[in-house]
Amino acid sequence: MHPAANTPPTPGDVLPDHPDFLWRNPDPKPSYDVVVVGGGGHGLATAYYLAKNHGITNIAVLEKGWLAGGNMARNTTIIRSNYLWDESSGIYEHSLKLWETLEEDLDYPILFSQRGVLNLAHSLQDVRDSKRRVYANQLNGIDAEWLEPDEVAKVCPIVNVSSDVRYPVHGATYQPRAGIAKHDYVAWGFARRANDLGIDLIQDCEVTGIDISDGRVTGVRTTRGRIAAGKVALAAAGHSSVVAAMAGLRLPLQSHPLQALVSELLEPVHPTVVMSNAVHVYVSQAHKGELVMGAGIDSYNGYGQRGAFHIIERQMAAVLELFPVFARAHMLRTWAGIVDVTPDASPIVGLTPVRNLYLNCGWGTGGFKATPGVGWCFAHTVATGEPHPYNAPFTLSRFTTGALIDEHGAAAVAH
Amino acid sequence: MQLIDCPWCGEREEAEFHYGGQAHVAHPEDPHALDDEQWAQYVFFRDNPKGPFAERWTHSAGCRRWFNALRDTVTHEFLAVYRVGDPPPPLIRTAPGAQPRQDPEATS
Lengths: 415, 108
Ligand SMILES: Cc1cc2nc3c(=O)[nH]c(=O)nc-3n(C[C@H](O)[C@H](O)[C@H](O)COP(=O)(O)OP(=O)(O)OC[C@H]3O[C@@H](n4cnc5c(N)ncnc54)[C@H](O)[C@@H]3O)c2cc1C
Ligand SMILES: [Zn+2]
Known about the structure:
The complex is a heterodimer.
Chain A: E1 31-37, H1 41-54, E2 59-62, H2 71-74, E3 78-79, H3 86-106, E4 117-121, H4 124-139, E5 145-147, H5 149-155, E6 171-175, E7 179-180, H6 183-196, E8 200-202, E9 207-213, E10 216-222, E11 225-234, H7 240-245, E12 254-265, E13 273-276, E14 281-285, E15 290-297, H8 309-322, E16 331-341, E17 348-351, E18 357-361, H9 371-384, H10 398-401
Parallel strand pairs in A: 1-2, 1-11, 2-8, 4-13, 11-18
Antiparallel strand pairs in A: 3-7, 4-6, 5-6, 9-10, 10-11, 12-15, 12-16, 13-14, 14-15, 17-18
Chain B: E1 3-6, E2 10-13, E3 18-22, H1 36-44, E4 52-58, E5 66-72, E6 78-82, E7 91-92, E8 101-102
The structure holds flavin-adenine dinucleotide and zinc ion.
């Protein structure tokens, strides 16, 4: 009820309308051409590119919780393509190029900010490995530079580059086109466009079984009934082992908690993204002003979306080593996601032994940056039944043939 | 901090321990007899269950000995610890949906 024109308004009695929802909330239909399992960034991007690039729109994205409430809501949003190996450069650079036009493509703000990323080197071996990676990147047409400590200080004046610290900064690789984006907006942008193209985004719908007959997938069982499917595309991130087991597949994955934290809101102080493998932390400053930090996984397997506090303490010790200026910042919040780690720290994207069942997993600690790129390539794989050239090397069978893509030691911190 | 019950030292803080992944993965008896698929399974594939998991730990900042544990990967609760060489304790499920518990009869 609006107050009558002649009575003075009481504060708070006229509330703004609830914003329009960006997507419908349909009930599942009995059958779809493609069912995507997992409504995170990868599932949403895959559905969007299936419709946009391949004209397939009879699609459901099934999400057990709320849309993009998994790692998509929990990651630290670092986007870069400076990986060592040609195969990784291919898919990550493809993704970075898509990020550069994604806002116009989705017609939705995603706050993509190409503020550059520094990967610090703290030892002679770090310096050698980093330069090797810079040269490899340059050969692959990726913007990469080697910076001496004084040049590091020019890019990011608050990094402590003095030589009297325990792990002095000997230099850094720099990728100017790298950066961050607003993860929630990215998910909502993809969801909105997928919805506009007729795709059903179905929340609170957990896949509990996968039906296979004659070696071919025929549908999924869910907490909202059976859904028949011509093709099923798995994009369940930390739960990939659990979901794949429903189809009798055993994957070379271990699920771990990965934690991150934010500070209170601060004035803009940190102009870029800094990552350090040796001290082991990475830091950026979100648009709103929080310092966003993360580091490595908790050591043990875990599905609990929480980790141990001593891991957070170590991250903060590392950050103070690099940024003494943060000593008085307050930590506001910590959380964890569940990441699916492969033995070679590279993803698995492609076909499975079950016909019409496709697999996208193993992005571990670093798959946010791949969201548009993997959506593009996985959609191609699902639509055509053949891997896209960019994901062709990332097969499940590489663990048998030995054609690993070992980014573990190669790509600095893996996020 | 989470306490872990070392079979030799008793309860100590988690930070004293290191994780060793899945337990009871034996080296192949006759490695030359394995084909590529079997080698891949041995080298790269491990179970990754949501729930109880038999795994290896070492008390690196204590007695430095390895031991096995049955731990729930969702709650992070240690359901049992036992010495290397001992079989994993059998589980009993008390009620549908309840956490499986160590069978008290079986571990003495
Ligand atoms: C703390 C943290 C920091 C990170 N930082 C970075 C970073 O800086 N840069 C970067 O590139 N990457 C980063 N990552 C990794 C990145 O978040 C993931 O690789 C990526 O989000 C995985 O793809 P996704 O978005 O589809 O996953 P998710 O958002 O996790 O989507 C998977 C979805 O599947 C759903 N699901 C699971 N099982 C079922 C089922 N049975 N039925 C239906 N739905 C199901 C889940 O609920 C979930 O919503 C980080 C991750 C974490 C946790
Ligand atoms: Zn001990």
